[in-house]
Amino acid sequence: MPLLVGISGLILVGAPLAGVWLAGQPLDAYLELPPRPVPTVAAGFSWTAFCLLAAFVVAAIAPFVWRFLGAPAPASGPAPSRLAFPNWGWAALLWLAVSWTLAWTRFSWFESFQQHTFTPLWLGYIVCVNALTMQRAGSCLLTREPARFAALFPLSALFWWFFEYLNRFVANWRYTGIENFDALEYTFFATLAFSTVLPAVTSTAEWLGTFPRLESAFARWHPLRVPRPKAAATLVLALTTLSLAALGVFREYVFPLVWISPVLVMICLQALGGRATVLAPLASGDWRGIARFSAAALACGFLWEMWNYGSLARWEYSIPHVDRFRIFEMPLLGYAGYLPFGIECAAIAALVLDDRRTR
To answer: How far apart are CA 311 and CA 308, in angstroms?
Structure first.
């Protein structure tokens, strides 16, 4: 497994640099620490690009929505017993409410900490959603597998730093309100914030799995089998590596691949190594893991964007061609990126969790 992670990291780091180098661009700006996006001016809005991308997104998600809405109701049976909402859940809910209030207000006595509200907010959310799962299912990841759950935090930080690195080539987002941070402060506080991403998405996916309608809709759907999987994995890996190399050269056209390429690299290398992938259950028609994690990432994405909107330290977007119809800071079509991001979260979380929890 360490070899798999190492090769994935080498491709994700090396391919974009190779593309920039082959294009004759200087590499210095892409190698600075901490990784900050290289300033660029995004292309203006294009109705053609917007409509084409919107059509692709609708075509991709419509079958899932149709399946969910049209699936037969779960088999009736005795109503599951529900536990009381745990006391630690109420404490987390209070913590979350206080953190949200502090994030969106500007009290003078809180000025020294105003830039650091992201991590407390998301720690509160993570514990709250685990409490909701405990109430519905009688157990949750936080209490059932505390050591593995804790391992998600450092893994998450490393995971998101890869996206920060890839963003250096496309410059789709940048952070404001932290201009006074030096490199060490930026790296430390960013790592704390990034460490909450995987626990939040994974915990939300587990909570969604407690809803019978979602489970019954996607437990038995269309089987998806790939003939000659190793040959297909080799081809997809080659194309994905080329797409990563194009990030810094053709950023205005290939920027959506930032959210697709990492998971494709991981899955292709797993397939070539004879390992089970996060997509393996699709061969038997089991789409539950994909549905749960994609929906979980979209739900967390909405909360990320909402809580970001009123915070002092925040991110802003600059998206070529489709930067229109914003919900908070995120352009409407940008939310589609959270769907494949959820699959990436499942693939990475499976490195430390029981695989059944991510499928």
So the answer is: 5
